[in-house]
TrEMBL record:
Subcellular location: Cell membrane
Residue ranges of domain ABC transmembrane type-1 in the record: 52-257
Domain of life: Bacteria
Membrane topology according to the record: Multi-pass membrane protein
A single BP term in Gene Ontology: transmembrane transport
InterPro entries referenced in this protein's UniProt entry, alphabetically: MetI-like (IPR000515), MetI-like_sf (IPR035906)
Transmembrane segments: 12-30, 56-76, 88-108, 120-147, 187-209, 238-257
SUPFAM superfamilies for the chain: MetI-like
GO CC terms, sorted: plasma membrane
Protein name as it appears in the record: ABC transporter permease subunit
PROSITE patterns (UniProt xref): ABC_TM1
Protein family according to the UniProt entry: Belongs to the binding-protein-dependent transport system permease family. CysTW subfamily.
Organismal lineage: Bacteria, Bacillati, Bacillota, Clostridia, Eubacteriales
Keywords: Cell membrane, Membrane, Transmembrane, Transmembrane helix, Transport
Length: 270
């Protein structure tokens, strides 16, 4: 029987940073300030349905845009020389070396009414265009900050697709579109699912981007959760209830993504 001792650090890590936090969320979500059991907190989450739906919608839009940008970029990058791939991967990761907050502040400077973009448009007699404090600005911030999380898993999968595989498809009479539909896309589907999950999950729960680029009229569910834990409206029980509902939604979305991934794998081997 193999020793379980090597897994002990990981088990401790899971207990401290996963099990205990989730347990605290469950405790606060189903209790009152006196510690009595209640489901009132969960029932009151319905009043934020509009904000939740907007969060899901904007996160989904940002995820689709990231996929449309990252997929062709990752594919063509995977077909280049190894030295070129290393250079471009470094360029993709370079913004991630900068603080997340500073990157978002930079977009505020670009998008505000007196920002660089509107000053540039002013040279052509255009603007100022209202870009800051809009849903579009929030989506732009999501795409900019989370695009690398879509590119990297797609590239790691596509680089494993050999050129000989594509050549074999062409030798069998497949044109470019058929090769993509029957070979490239099914083989890259695990990377697509990983990238979608890595972008959608943080996008739906973000609050910094929506606060700084969206203004008060474009609050997301992450902003509502944050407000429950700070200031005069401090209510960890309500904040935990909203967090729990959001957690369930994210898990359902991830389960749905995994179903698509499984279907794609069955299509490959059938």
């Amino acid at each position: 029987m193999k020793s379980k001792l090597p897994s002990l650090p990981y088990l401790i890590w899971m207990a401290v940073f996963i099990v205990i936090p989730v347990g605290l969320v469950l405790y606060f979500a189903f209790t009152t300030q006196d510690g009595a059991f209640t489901i009132e907190n969960i029932s009151q989450v319905g009043q934020y349905t509009g904000v939740l739906l907007r969060s899901i919608w904007l996160a989904a839009v940002a995820t689709v845009i990231c996929l449309l940008i990252a997929y062709p970029l990752a594919f063509f990058l995977s077909r280049t020389r190894a030295s070129v791939q290393r250079t471009f991967i470094m360029l993709v990761m370079l913004p991630m070396w900068m603080n997340f907050l500073l990157r978002t502040y930079a977009w505020m400077t670009l998008l505000e009414n007196g920002g660089l973009i509107n000053k540039f448009l002013g040279f052509f007699g255009l603007g100022p265009v209202q870009m800051i404090n809009t849903s579009g600005a929030v989506v732009l911030g999501m795409v900019y900050n989370y695009l690398p999380f879509m590119i990297l898993p797609l590239h790691s999968i596509m680089v494993k697709i050999e050129n000989t595989t594509l050549e074999a498809a062409q030798d069998l009479g497949a044109n470019w579109f058929q090769s993509f539909r029957r070979v490239v896309f099914p083989l890259s589907l695990p990377g697509v699912m990983t990238g979608v999950t890595m972008v959608f999950v943080p996008a739906i729960s973000t609050f910094i981007i929506s606060r700084m680029l969206g203004g008060g009229g474009n609050s997301l569910i992450g902003d509502i959760i944050e407000l429950q834990f700070i200031g005069a409206s401090y209510n960890p029980h309500m904040g935990s209830a909203i967090s729990l509902v959001l957690m369930v939604i994210v898990l359902l979305c991830m389960s749905l993504f995994n179903q698509f991934d499984s279907s794609g794998k069955e299509g490959i081997y059938s």
